[in-house]
Fold this sequence. Notes:
Layout: H1 14-20, H2 27-34, H3 42-56, H4 63-77, H5 81-88, H6 92-114, H7 119-126, H8 130-159
Amino acid sequence: MIKKIDKTKLKINIDHLLEVANKGPSRWELDNIIWHDRTNDPKCLVEFLTRIKTLEVIKNKTDNEQKEYNILCELANELDESECLDLLSDNDEIVQQNFIETLARQSALEVLTRDRVSLETMNLMCKLNPSDFILTSKRTQDIINSVHELVIQGETLSNDVAGA
């Protein structure tokens, strides 16, 4: 038979901890993870702005919705409107730069995680003109090198930390 534990003997107040727990994303998460690409990816920017408008029209926001809305408005105020207009325009140069950056990130992630570029990503790269292909390849290598350098720096720093 398993002995029951009396909840009054718990050292912590579980109900209180659950009540005060942050149930939504933090400012850091919203800024650096969820909406990080809002300054260089038009689709992400549109989704970011749409999320603000969606939260704006909710009449009786929960505390978490109000908090998220406030944070997103703060992040929106940090944007430069003219840069947003450029990003959202049909400017071929900006579209090209964004495509190359996105493709380079994708290929770098694939190389870092699988040691090779996938067939789908290479197929996209091969559709580019030679100068864009070279630019994408160089940017891919820059990203890979940056990640390797950060790992080396991290290893060097962790050597100075006991237990790391």
